[in-house]
């Protein structure tokens, strides 16, 4: 799933490739991905792409005052194409949800692999009308995200640190992968209650969030859209690395699995050497 750094890199990539170009046509072969009906996709044709911005994990193309907004979700992706075929893709077949043709023959597909049907695309005059954007919390790369702001936010929040970090209404853009990475940097259990964090913990947490995301953005920016997934994977220390050695201490990275996802952590670095209980593991051992 693309998170803040990957979406930020897509912003940079599309700013370079698409801004200044005119939208020639928009195909919507995956009609379920389009969450709005007014304005229609045809309204974008003939208008110029004027800017690209990010809201949390949402990507927002400003097309002369209309906004093409997408949330790539778990299995969605943006595929840039230097040359798009003129014939429209088949309706309801294959991974393409939306295809945007630009006036020089290039363009991009918003796709979703598998059958999850969580890719969402909105065409709107006001990005704040997208429910997921309206409720976003603070952007961790904005200058407003200070230690004091994080301290205040945590002082009125209940829950465990992993859940708090990934709550988009508190901090916008951090998902399952980068929260695992931040907690590994912190040497902290994902299940530590946030009300147990000391002022020193909060200061370190702030630094870990900003550093982890900034480093990931630096690695991702300048890469073509097609290289971002591999770069994200290569840059991770624990996330998605269950069974592999921790790059800091060499202990085996473990995971805790939930219904549709899993978190990864290093027991030596984060949980005092004690592996956490895991539903999937304990079910297998019964
Ligand atoms: Zn370790």
C-alpha end-to-end distance: 32 Å
The side-by-side strand order for the widest beta sheet comes to 1-6-7-5
Alpha-beta content class: alpha+beta
Give the mean pLDDT: 93
Global morphology = globular
Helix content: 25-40%
Q: What keywords describe this structure?
A:
10 strands, 20% strand, binds zinc ion, alpha+beta, 286 residues
Quick synopsis:
The protein has 286 residues and is of the alpha+beta class. It has 9 helices and 10 strands. A hairpin with a 2-residue loop joins β3 and β4.
Overview of the structural elements:
The radius of gyration is 20 Å and the shape is globular. The chain has helices at residues 4-17, 131-134, 147-155, 161-166, 176-186, 199-220, 228-234, 267-270, 279-285, and strands at residues 23-27, 49-55, 58-63, 66-71, 76-81, 96-102, 107-112, 120-124, 254-257, 262-265. The mean pLDDT is 93. It is of the alpha+beta class. The structure holds zinc ion.
